[in-house]
C-alpha cells in the first residue's frame, strides 16, 4: 500500500509520513491511486456537507470550498496560477512559457484566474446545495484526480528530471488504463445519471485542455496537470449545477 500513501502525501495536506524515500517504481505506481485519493476527498467533503445541513447556505458553501482547498494544500491552484501567468507571458513561445512557469511569483493574471475559478466553484456549490444535489462533491474530485492519471497516460512529460519524470517513466500503463475504466464505472455507480452526465462533460473538456497544452508545450508539466485538474473540477461542478 506504499504507493497509495505516496499519492495521499503528494496530493493532500493530510499528515502522512512515509517510511523512507520512495523508489522511482513506487512513485510511478502511486499514480494508479490518484483516483482513489480523489474518491477519499469526495467522501470527506460529502460527510462535511452532511454535518453542515441547516447552516446558512452561503456559509455552508464557503466552508465546503475552504475545506476542499485545505485538503489539497492549494497544490493544484498553484499549478493553475503558474500556468495562467505562463500562457499569457509566454506569447506562444514554448521555452518562454516553460521558463515563466518555473517562477514562483504570481502575476495579476494568476490572481485573476484563481479568483474567477474559486468564484465559479463557490457559485456552483451554492447552487448544488440549494438543489440538494451534492453528489458533485464526490464526482468532481474523483474525476479531477483521475484526469491526472489520464494525462500522464496519454501525454508526454516535458520537464526532464524531478518527480514528474519519475511518475511518467514508471507508470504501469496497462494497469493505468484499467484504473481509468474502474474510475469511470465508479462515477456511474456513485452518481447514476449525474455520474454519466459528469463523464460526458469531463471527457471533451479533458481532451480540449490536453490539446491546448500539446500545441503550446508538446506535452505536460506538473503545473499544467494541476491546471487541468482545477478546470475539470470547475467544469463538472458548474455543469451539474446547470443540469
Name the overall outline. Answer: globular
Number of strands: 0
Radius of gyration: 17 Å
Mean pLDDT: 94
Structural class: mainly alpha
Low-confidence stretches: none
Order of helices and strands: HHHHHHHHHHHH
Put simply, the count of helices is 12
State the share of residues found in helices, binned by percent: over 70%
Characteristics:
single chain; globular; 243 residues
Structure summarized in a few sentences:
This protein has twelve helices and no strands. The chain is mostly helical. It has one domain.
Structure report:
This protein has 243 residues and is mostly helical. α8 runs antiparallel to α10 and α8 packs antiparallel against α12. The chain is globular, with a radius of gyration of 17 Å.
How is this fold's topology laid out?
Elements: H1 2-11, H2 24-30, H3 34-51, H4 57-72, H5 75-89, H6 94-102, H7 108-130, H8 136-154, H9 162-169, H10 173-191, H11 193-217, H12 222-242
Helix pairs in contact: 1-2, 2-9, 3-4, 3-8, 4-7, 5-6, 5-7, 5-12, 7-12, 8-10, 8-11, 8-12, 10-11, 11-12
Amino acid at each position: 500500500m506504499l504507493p497509495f500513501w505516496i499519492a495521499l502525501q503528494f496530493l493532500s495536506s493530510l499528515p502522512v509520513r512515509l517510511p523512507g524515500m520512495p523508489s522511482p517504481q513506487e512513485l510511478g505506481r502511486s499514480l494508479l491511486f490518484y483516483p482513489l485519493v480523489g474518491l477519499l476527498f469526495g467522501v470527506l467533503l460529502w460527510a462535511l456537507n452532511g454535518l453542515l445541513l441547516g447552516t446558512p447556505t452561503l456559509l455552508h458553501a464557503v466552508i465546503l470550498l475552504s475545506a476542499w482547498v485545505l485538503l489539497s494544500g492549494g497544490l493544484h491552484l498553484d499549478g493553475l496560477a503558474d500556468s495562467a501567468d505562463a500562457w499569457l507571458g509566454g506569447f506562444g513561445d514554448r521555452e518562454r512559457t516553460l521558463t515563466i512557469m518555473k517562477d514562483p511569483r504570481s502575476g495579476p493574471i494568476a490572481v485573476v484566474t484563481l479568483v474567477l475559478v474559486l468564484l465559479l466553484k463557490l457559485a456552483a456549490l451554492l447552487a448544488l446545495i440549494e438543489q440538494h444535489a451534492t453528489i458533485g462533491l464526490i464526482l468532481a474530485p474523483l474525476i479531477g484526480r483521475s484526469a491526472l492519471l489520464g494525462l500522464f497516460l496519454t501525454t508526454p512529460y516535458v520537464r526532464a528530471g524531478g518527480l514528474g519524470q519519475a511518475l511518467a517513466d514508471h507508470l504501469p500503463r496497462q494497469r493505468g488504463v484499467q484504473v481509468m475504466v474502474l474510475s469511470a464505472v465508479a462515477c456511474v455507480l456513485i452518481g447514476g445519471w449525474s455520474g454519466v452526465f459528469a463523464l460526458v462533460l469531463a471527457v471533451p473538456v479533458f481532451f480540449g485542455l490536453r490539446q491546448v497544452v500539446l500545441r503550446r508545450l508538446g506535452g505536460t508539466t506538473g503545473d499544467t496537470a494541476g491546471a487541468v485538474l482545477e478546470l475539470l473540477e470547475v467544469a463538472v461542478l458548474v455543469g451539474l449545477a446547470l443540469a
